[in-house]
Design brief:
Elements (H helix, E strand, L loop, with lengths): L1 H11 L4 H11 L6 E6 L4 H13 L4 E5 L9 H4 L7 E5 L5 H11 L3 E5 L6 E2 L9 E6 L7 H6 L2 E4 L11 H16 L10 H15 L3 H9 L1
Parallel strand pairs: 1-2, 1-6, 2-3, 4-6, 4-7, 5-7
Helix pairs in contact: 1-8, 2-8, 3-7
């Protein structure tokens, strides 16, 4: 902990006071009470838009399952939001979905699959006090059977028109806006711990400094 703080103090010398103030303000609204899982999304603009929504609504971690499709965040759509999130990618095994499920559940999250399933609860009725991972599935097909079977709950956005589904990035934005807003009105400890804030702050400092590799070499020497 002491070494980490020493490194932070060293790196702060390369960042403006204004940037450090912004980091501290944003950190107050960051959360790991909720996280997002993207299961095999195909369209990069959807992954990019959801990444942007995660940043906007204070979600720090984004889990990306890549079974069939490799994905990346477009800076044009993501607007640089990818710099500020912590990514967890699952693309090295035959059962990446299961690996993700196991990791997320081990971290204490209930898995909530977004699906228009008849027994799904509406997002406005969802209990925001529970630590939850929201799963958004591949375009058209949606969340996989494996994910649906192991999910702890199912969630849907109310729709009143002829169209039977929302674009996945729109659905994600609606869900995150709702739960992120409501959890802040509860007594739930949704904010990052002091140690988590320190870790994320260090991550942001490193991403803000040009020639960070050379500067880290100087620090270690």
């Amino acid at each position: 902990m002491e070494d980490k703080q020493h490194l932070i103090s060293f790196l702060e010398e390369f960042v403006t006071e204004h940037r450090k103030e912004i980091f501290q303000e944003v950190l107050k609204d960051r959360t790991r009470h909720f996280t997002v899982i993207l299961e095999d999304l195909f369209q990069k603009h959807n992954t990019s838009a959801i990444t942007r929504s995660c940043d906007i609504f204070g979600i720090q971690d984004l889990h990306i399952i890549e079974n069939k499709y490799k994905t990346y965040v477009s800076n044009q759509v993501g607007k640089g939001s990818q710099k500020w999130l912590t990514f967890h990618r699952y693309n090295e095994e035959n059962h990446n979905t299961q690996t993700c499920i196991d990791k997320v559940k081990a971290a204490g999250y209930q898995i909530i699959a977004t699906t228009p399933h008849e027994k799904s609860s509406f997002v406005g009725d969802f209990d925001v006090t529970k630590k939850s991972a929201f799963v958004f599935g591949v375009e058209k097909a949606g969340v996989s059977d494996m994910m649906l079977e192991q999910a702890d709950g199912h969630l849907k956005v109310p729709m009143y028109g002829f169209t039977e589904s929302l674009n996945v990035s729109v659905a994600a934005a609606i869900v995150l806006q709702d739960v992120a807003g409501r959890v802040r009105k509860t007594d739930t400890q949704w904010q990052l711990t002091r140690e988590e804030q320190q870790d994320v702050y260090l991550q942001w400092l490193k991403k803000s400094i040009k020639s960070i590799d050379k500067i880290m070499e100087r620090y270690k020497s």
